[in-house]
Amino acid sequence: MKQEVKIFGAALDPLSSPERLNLKLSYLDYLRVQPKENVHADPYDILKEYLRKELPFIDGDAWFGKMKIDSWLTPKPQLEDLHLLNSVTFSDFLSKDGCWDYAMKTSDYVENNIFPSKPVMIGVDHSLTGGTILALSRFIENLNVIVLDAHFDVLRFQNLDSNGQGIISDICPGNPATQIGNEIRFYECGNFLSYLLEKELIRPENLWILGAQDEILESLSMENYASEAERAQIKEYKRWIKRGVHVIPKTDLLNNNLYLDIKGPSYLSIDMDVGSLSSVFSARFMNCIGLTYDEFVNSLWNLAQNFSQLNIPIVGLDIMEIDIHLLEATELHHYQDHSKKIVKEIFQTFL
């Protein structure tokens, strides 16, 4: 019997980088000049509208709704949130483990509202994936987690400039005001996997990272030439790989002979930045050249073939790190962004 699906939105967007804050402030400036009803508040809204037309086989009741997020922490805040939109406020949220609090809320939401249906999350900040994994792990022993991502999200260290301030990471920026030395001590999108591994919510041998192309991975053989912070991060990567985490870089993913030696129920998390600056121009992080549309789709098909051959049940799925502002801008200016088509392929392939 096919498991019922419930699709929900979770639009947490708490990053304190200038780029993220400026997008929100520009949006509020626009609302002042031309106030109108906000049709697409977040990725869930725009994808629901698109996919209900493109994939009518998905029951309308499957679109369950959205998890409540404080408006100032969403991609499109309200005008009354203006006083909260500054780096200090967001840094305070991050340093007090606000992302972990929301991951816990996501876990409760899934357990109380989605189960026993299959959870499908359309979200922004990748840290919320931890919440769904936490909910599933309460019922499924030895849950496999497969992450399609351009980055290996176990960031624990950050370079510092000459003033002791953090330099924005190539992986997922923490904020200088929330650093102790150069180690990130709070749960966030750039280190959520290491956090889940440390808490033993995921076993290292049950975690697969597909499509990674972090510069740090390319420099593992050049450790002697790295900075102190880079060497610390290299050590962190090596630690998890030695303990059993499977990392399949982008170059290997494109060989079309993907084989995952896994058994049992699996959770699939897809970060849209795996196609950044190639097939996707609306991910929150676009700092590498990702998969083309054909490469992205072929990777999905190869992965699905693995699941089918090994008779692996997919017990949950999420699509994360979509930026609503960039998604709307690419449509307005007719850029060749394939984000919506790729999400359609994901739904057709795995649901």
Attribute tags:
single chain; 351 residues; Arginase, Chain A; eight-stranded parallel beta sheet; 12 helices; 10 strands; 37% helix
What distance separates the N and C termini?
Answer: 13 Å
Structural class: alpha/beta
Q: How many structural domains does the protein architecture include?
A: 1
By DSSP (H or I, 4+ residues per run), the number of helices equals 12
Question: What's the CATH class label?
Answer: Alpha Beta
Shape: globular
Low-confidence stretches are 159-181
User: What's the architecture, going by CATH?
Assistant: 3-Layer(aba) Sandwich
Mean pLDDT across the residues is: 87
What topology, given as strand order, has the largest sheet? 2-1-3-10-9-4-7-8
Q: Percent helix among the residues?
A: 25-40%
Number of strands: 10
Order of helices and strands: EHHEHHEHEEEHEHHEHEHEHH
Q: In percent terms, what proportion of residues is strand? A: 5-15%
State Rg. Answer: 19 Å
Major sheet size, sense and barrel closure: 8 strands, parallel
Going by CATH, what is the homologous superfamily? Ureohydrolase domain
Stated plainly, the CATH topology is called Arginase, Chain A
